[in-house]
Amino acid sequence: MSIFTKIITGEVPSYKVAENDNFIAFLDINPNAKGHALVVPKVEENKIFGLSRDAYHQLLDFSYTVAKSLEKAISCKRVGMSIIGLEVPHVHVHLIPLNEMADIQFTKKVTCTHEEFVALAARIAAEFDRE
Ligand code: AMP
C-alpha cells in the first residue's frame, strides 16, 4: 500500500486542500515552495500513463480546479505543474506556486512549520470550496 493510499484511508495524516469521490489533494510535506500541493487519484496506480484515458482527463480536470484555488490563495507569478513519481509509485500531479525557475526544480526546498501548513491548507481549501 502506498503512503498516499494511507493518506486517503486516514492512516497517515495530511494537510488536505480538496477531495471528491475519486481524487484528493494535499500539501507536499517537503515543498519546493509554500503551497506546493499534490493531486492524487484514490485508485492506486503507479504511472500516469497507466491510468485509463478517462481517469487521466478527470485527474487533470480536478487539478485545474485545485490550481485555480492555489492561484487565488498564494501569492505567485503562476502555478506550475509537474508529474514525476520517482519517489512515490502512486500517480500524483505536483502543483507548485512559481516565482522563479528554481521553484519548479526539485532541488530547492522550503521549510514550513505545522502551523504554516495548517494555515496554507485552510486558505487553499477555502478557495476550492468557492470554485
Ligand atoms: P515524486 O514521486 O518524485 O513525484 O515525489 C513524491 C513527492 O511526495 C515528494 O515531493 C515528497 O515530498 C512527497 N511526499 C512524500 N511523502 C509525503 C507525505 N506523507 N505527505 C505529503 N507529501 C509527501
Automatic annotation (TrEMBL):
GO terms for biological process: nucleotide metabolic process. The active site is at H92. Residues 3-106 form the HIT domain. A motif (Histidine triad motif) lies at residues 90-94. This is HIT family protein. SUPFAM superfamilies: HIT-like (SSF54197). It comes from Polaribacter irgensii 23-P. GO terms for molecular function: catalytic activity. PANTHER family: ADENOSINE 5'-MONOPHOSPHORAMIDASE HNT1 (PTHR46648:SF1), HIT FAMILY PROTEIN 1 (PTHR46648).
